[in-house]
Amino acid sequence: MTTLDKIRRFERYLELTRGQADQMLDVVLDKLLERKRSELARHLTEMRVELDSFETRYGMASARFFEQFERGELGDAADYFDWSATWQMFHNAQQYLHALSDEPAAT
């Protein structure tokens, strides 16, 4: 069973119980969310250090680099592939962290 299947099971359970408070479940979910947010924040910090290093080395902001790299304007240096991958992972991690934040979901 996948993680998503397990979450869907809990969702069905909560629907059947009309979301009645389950203190243990709330504590576990809070801990899981905080752990994942902390992990993502740590990864973002590590990737930001890597991005800063590339930006210093090549004298270009990562956003500008990525646009030019995607258009094929910069060549195929191995560093560029690493920089591109780091930039994409950084943005994905930002999205994941935002999804786990306390902010209400957009409707």
Write the topology of this structure.
Blueprint: H1 3-16, H2 23-58, H3 62-70, H4 78-99
Helix pairs in contact: 2-4, 3-4
Tell me what you see in this structure.
Helix content is 76%, strand content 0%. By secondary structure, the protein is mainly alpha-helical. It has a domain of 69 residues. The longest helix is centred in the middle third of the chain and has 36 residues. The radius of gyration is 20 Å and the shape is elongated. The model has no long low-confidence stretch (mean pLDDT 91).
Keywords:
mainly alpha, 0% strand, single chain, elongated, 76% helix, 107 residues
Which term fits the overall shape? Answer: elongated
* Main sheet makeup: none
Question: pLDDT below 50 for ≥5 consecutive residues: which ranges?
Answer: none
Ends distance: 30 Å
Total helices: the number is: 4
Overall structural class, as computed from helix and strand content, comes to mainly alpha
Tell me the fraction of residues in β-strands, as a range.
under 5%
Query: What value does the Rg take, in angstroms?
Result: 20 Å
SSE string? HHHH
| Overall pLDDT level | 91
Question: Which percent range fits the helix content?
Answer: over 70%
How many E-type strands?
Answer: 0
Question: TL;DR?
Answer:
This protein is mainly alpha-helical and 107 residues long. The chain is 76% helix and 0% strand. The mean pLDDT is 91.
